[in-house]
Amino acid sequence: xQSVTQPDIHITxxxxxxLELRCNYSYGATPYLFWYVQSPGQGLQLLLKYFSGDTLxxxxxxxxxxxxxxxxxxxxxxxxxxWSDAAEYFCAVGYDYSGAGSYQLTFGKxxxxxxxx
Amino acid sequence: xxxxxxxxxxxxxxSGTSVKIECRSLDxxxxxxxxxxxxxxxxxMLMATSNEGSKATYEQGVEKDKFLINHASxxxxxxxxxxxxxxDSSFYICSARYRDRWRDTEAFFGQGTxxxxx
Lengths: 117, 118
What we know:
The complex is a heterodimer.
Chain A: E1 4-5, E2 10-14, E3 19-21, E4 24-25, E5 31-38, E6 44-50, E7 56-58, E8 64-68, E9 73-78, E10 87-95, E11 104-107, E12 111-116
Parallel strand pairs in A: 2-12
Antiparallel strand pairs in A: 1-4, 3-9, 5-6, 5-10, 7-8, 8-9, 10-11, 10-12
Chain B: E1 4-7, E2 10-13, E3 19-25, E4 32-38, E5 44-51, E6 57-58, E7 67-73, E8 76-81, E9 90-97, E10 108-109, E11 113-117
Parallel strand pairs in B: 2-11
Antiparallel strand pairs in B: 1-3, 3-8, 4-5, 4-9, 5-6, 7-8, 9-10, 9-11
């Protein structure tokens, strides 16, 4: 069964510092990879996605992620964190087993980001 | 981007009553809609997947008679929690996606519904 691992449950960084949130996925067919962010009491907002092509993906709010097939990773990065980035971050993966472009999404357990002013 | 609207944002109901939650795709026709449940400080647990005009596919362990899902149109899916009990209190989130030329798009999420059963 496909799985996603976010090793860090909680990360605290100072405002202005760089950020990297880790995500590893179980090996499978062509992975579709996503990062979502959730503020308390809210739904999920897509930060960025990878379906194919360039392995360095740019997203909204200054975030980027790099797909590294050899490491089965899709880590999220931001060069300078803002206080408003404090939230829960979820990595998700889907596999197109049939080749028809359909997939089931599996979420990691999330990483809570706290930002120190 | 595509917008999914979920209503209500929060609801309090008495034990034994039923509650309906709506999920609408506002600017696209959703080929598939998903319902999740999220416990405090935990990840999302997929409850069911629904396609327009067909019966929902429930995940193992999810009671079909307790959580009724109807996907009446390409823009509307509803989740009805029947005979609600305090243990059904949770945060419920829907998502929807459509098919582009090559594949299913990413999932677009609603704002979530906080259900409290008293």
